[in-house]
Specification:
The protein is mostly beta strands. The protein has 3 helices and 11 strands; from the N terminus they run H-E-E-E-E-E-E-E-E-E-H-E-E-H. Strand 3 and strand 4 form a beta hairpin. The radius of gyration is 17 Å and the shape is globular.
Length: 155
C-alpha cells in the first residue's frame, strides 16, 4: 500500500518552470528573455524555423567569453562577448513556427531551455507581457517571469 501511495505522489510533481520567454517591447523590438538563475552560464542561443516545407533558417550565437549570462537578447543582434554562428534567419514571418533554445550550465551540470512559438503569438503580446512555456502557450507578466525561483534553476 505504501508503494502505491509513493508512486501516486511522484506523478504529482510540478511541471518544470521555463527558462526562456519572448517579449515584444512597446517599440516593437523582440527580446529573448532569460530567467535569472544564480551561477547560470548561457553558452549558446538559437532561434530556428520549424518547417516541413524547406530547410530550417537559423540565428545562433555562442558565448565566446564563457562567463556569466544575459538577462535578455534583442533578436538578430550580437551581445558583447558573444559571436554569431549562423544568420540564415533574419526576420520572423507570419505564418511561421519557430523554436528558441538556450544551452547553458550551472557549474558542471547542464541547464537548457526550449520553446516553440509563432510570430502571430508574439505580435499579440501587450506591453509588459512575455510568451513562455515549452510550446509558447503561456502569456504572463514579465516581472513575474524574471522573479527568481529556485525550482527553475535545477539542472
Amino acid at each position: 500500500m505504501i508503494t502505491l501511495a509513493a508512486a501516486g505522489l511522484a506523478g504529482c510533481s510540478p511541471a518544470p518552470e521555463p527558462l526562456l520567454a519572448i517579449e515584444r517591447t512597446a517599440t516593437g523590438d523582440i527580446l529573448l528573455v532569460i530567467a535569472p538563475c544564480s551561477g547560470y552560464r548561457a553558452l549558446g542561443l538559437y532561434v530556428f524555423s520549424d518547417s516541413d516545407t524547406g530547410p530550417s533558417e537559423v540565428w545562433s550565437l555562442s558565448n565566446k567569453e564563457r562567463i556569466g549570462s544575459l538577462g535578455e537578447v534583442k533578436f538578430f543582434t550580437t551581445p558583447v562577448g558573444w559571436e554569431v554562428n549562423d544568420t540564415t534567419l533574419t526576420e520572423l514571418r507570419d505564418p511561421g513556427l519557430y523554436v528558441a533554445k538556450i544551452d547553458g550550465a550551472m557549474g558542471t551540470r547542464s541547464l537548457n531551455g526550449r520553446m516553440a512559438f509563432t510570430a502571430e503569438k508574439i505580435n499579440k503580446l501587450n506591453a509588459g507581457e512575455v510568451l513562455t512555456g515549452t510550446k509558447g502557450e503561456k502569456v504572463m507578466d514579465r516581472e513575474q517571469f524574471v522573479k527568481p525561483s529556485s525550482g527553475r534553476c535545477k539542472p
